[in-house]
């Protein structure tokens, strides 16, 4: 590839402006690609919905009772004998 020859500073400035804009376009494409990848890996809406339900259920007196009773129920279910 042969180097380009310029006849004025205006041509150089014009090409530099084009290169600057191309750089910004590629940078924005890279950011968009990153955001799409992040959204596909970490689905935020279902997780936030689950967290809201979890927070609502486990708050207040019912939540306190569930927090105390749930480990006992799980250990009972795991340790129970088959056939009982």
Automatic annotation (TrEMBL):
Keywords: Membrane, Transmembrane, Transmembrane helix. It comes from the Bacteria. Pfam families: DUF6327. The chain crosses the membrane at residues 57-78. This is DUF6327 family protein. It comes from Flavobacterium sedimenticola.
């Amino acid at each position: 590839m042969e180097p380009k020859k310029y006849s004025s500073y205006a041509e150089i400035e014009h090409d530099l402006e084009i290169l600057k804009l191309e750089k910004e376009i590629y940078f924005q494409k890279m950011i968009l690609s990153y955001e799409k990848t992040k959204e596909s890996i970490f689905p935020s809406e279902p997780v936030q919905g689950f967290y809201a339900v979890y927070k609502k259920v486990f708050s207040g007196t019912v939540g306190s009772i569930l927090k105390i009773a749930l480990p006992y129920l799980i250990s009972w279910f795991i340790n129970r004998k088959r056939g009982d």
